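Reviewers asked in the last cycle whether our approach scales beyond single polypeptides. To address this, we selected a multi-component target totalling 525 residues and predicted its structure end to end. The input consisted of the following lines:
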Amino acid sequence: MGNKAESPVVLEDAVKGPGKLSRMFLTLYDVFQFIGRFFKEGFLPPYEGKELMKQCYDIGYRSLALISLTGFITGVVFTKQSRPSLAEFGATSWLPSLVGIALLRTLAPLLTSLIAAGKVGSSIGAELGSMRVTEQIDAMEVSATNPFKFLVTTRVLAATITIPILTFYTAMVGMLGALLNVSMSEGTSAKAFFQSSLESITFLDITASTVKAVIFGFTIGMVGCYQGYNSSKGTEGVGKAANSAVVIGMFLIFIEEVVSVQFFGLFRT
Amino acid sequence: MEQKKPTATAEKVIEIKGLFKSFGNYHVLKGVDLDLYKRENLVVLGKSGTGKSVLIKIVVGLLTPDQGEVKVLDQIVDQITYKDLLDLRLKVGFSFQNSALYDSMTIRENLEFPLVRNQRNLTKGEVNSAVEEMLDAVGLLQTINQMPSELSGGQRKRIGIARTLILRPEIMLYDEPTAGLDPITCLEINSLINEVQDRFHTSSIIITHDLTCAKAVGNRVAMLLDGKFERQGTFEEVFNTSDKRVKPFYDYNFIQ
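The resulting structure, written as structure tokens, was:
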């Protein structure tokens, strides 16, 4: 009992680490090491194919309903809001191509990724965080298996594969929303709508959208896994991991969007 | 309750020399020396927070020591390659305090997980029979298709031990095997630890602060006091003392 008063002081000292700047560099080093480990282990056998398929299904299934709704509403609302501006110049016939370009270049990848960051990123962060604090990851380690390959590699790969597929799905659903609005307002046929919108979409648009979606998917998976895999401090740590997965994931997606717009802009001139 | 007769041989399977481990300024282990002999059940006793779990986590390579040497089956744990460490872990089973069952998998999948990843040439039938044999050994074959959340604390501990045993380890490390269980279930777990030693010829370190468990399963007892093993021997040798750091342990368990 005599040690009771001493313990908190000792533990407080124990958790005091290096300064803020050093901690930032240590974290950065840790992040790059984590990413490096993914590339090192992700492509070497043995492969966790069954778990990868399960994760792809989970990620797609988990986000599908919300993405369908958001994509459709975005298509309807974006068309409706764009019409008055185009009408001022008598250019409402440009609506299908405007919607097509906007959806494919930016709205679909961004919306899909932000929704996935919320739904999938938080879920990965919480799941792995909970596994970490309940020693399930340690249990995998001590049974001579590789938890990183089973838990991290599969989830990051699944997000990287699934987000581009979901992005094109969002674009398609958004176009249907736009078609509904355009056909009700202008009586445009579906054939004419799609002909007009697809004509304006270039190969570069499709490439840029795919590349962005791949990067966003990788980011969502990696951030969720990093936060969850390295979580600590019990249930509080699990909540923090889930929250950080969303916040950091979204923040990085916006930064990547800005950079990629600049980058692919170089090829458009 | 009768204390187990020593069945150990003179062959050392674990040798720990001058082990130090700190977390910041919190010094947990301060020069630990300990040997585990083949086919011996060694009970490690100590107050909560004295570094008992830290010790076995160092043995299995989950933590690295600050100083000192841990030799397991003639290999120095923190000096071997990752591949050698994985090979060593096949021979060292670790049963976690909270069982650490994979809660998104069924009991069958929990047991299959380490087996199929370490013995990739096994057929589906061989995997199934290994899983069923091990569940039968812990008396829980009927839970094979259940989820961990559907099991009681004692059942979870047994499944955790079965999952560890499926790789047929030579050494078993039990972290608080009876913590949080009722007395009857504690007795069942104690019997299981003894059965494991007899049937699978394992050498074990059992971390606990339950003296009933220590007396029932231990061939030898080591008490961690102030970061060192100051008292080692049979149960009676360790507790036949007026040391104020040791007496309350005995009194709480057997007199109160």
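The two ends of chain A are 75 Å apart (CA to CA). We regard this as preliminary and will revisit it once experimental data from Aim 1 are available.
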